[in-house]
Amino acid sequence: MWFPLLGLVAILGAQGQEYFENYYNEIDIDDEQAEIKTRNAMRSPLQLWPSRRLYYRIAGDLSPEEADNVRNAVTTFNERTCLRFEELSGAAPAGSRYVFYKKSPKLCGTRIGYNPIPLLGAGSHDVQLSPKCLATPGIIQHETLHVLGLYHEQSRPDRDEHVVVDYDNIPRKYWPQFMATSESTTTTYDVPYDFESVMHYPKNAFAKDPSQPTMRALVDGNPVEREMGQTRGPSERDLFKIRKMYKCEESR
Predict the structure, then answer these.
(1) What is the CA radius of gyration of the chain?
(2) Domain around 248
(3) What is the pLDDT of residues 196-205, one digit of tens each?
(4) Residue 146 is labelled as binding a ligand
(5) 142 marked as part of a ligand binding site
(6) Minimal CA–CA distance to 73: which of 17, 22, 6, 148?
(7) Cβ(133)–Cβ(66) below 8 Å
(8) How many CB atoms lie within 10 A of CB 223?
(9) Is the distance from CB of 178 to CB of 203 less than 8 angstroms?
(10) Which residues are catalytic?
(11) Where does Zn(2+) bind (predicted)?
């Protein structure tokens, strides 16, 4: 099933600092699968990629700069995990599923995790990227982490120990995007909460009034306004989760 995650678009804030665009388009709220997309990391091994070697293709309509941004984005995973993204110049090996980075006028998103069902595991796993998304390797990496099986940081089972949500500043139909999930269905791989995760919503995500945060950090039990999320690239804890998910220690 196609998960219409309409992704993260970086824009400049009033003070010149880079922020995520408001997340109205991050998840299709009317999608019946929307709730499961907010979990932190997959438990099911069937939805992890079966090999540490992942093939990828770049659509021909990307500019040379955009194509290089994709290559630079995936190089981080090659250098800092045991995964190996290998660009295809011809046909994919028989029976292989590959990641296909495609240009979209407005959308930026992908399915979550490996889908073993269609075509018996063969064919493309599409990543739709708008020109704004293609301009920032950190956003390409955010979508690639979705491909690998990561969800959003602020929906971890232990979220309420780290942030408080101001539901009064969020339209009611978007409240489900701020629900913490159960430990019985999701896992954090025992990685500490990470405000610097590239998978974390910004502090004013879905805000009715973007000048006011929808989430505040808890410091000694007190809510404190601080920046959350970023588009620079995966944090060390993001990469640590990937290494745990794909058992990188066992490959040494």
Answers:
(1) 18
(2) 1-252
(3) 999 998 999 8
(4) yes
(5) yes
(6) 148
(7) no
(8) 15
(9) no
(10) 143
(11) 142, 146, 152
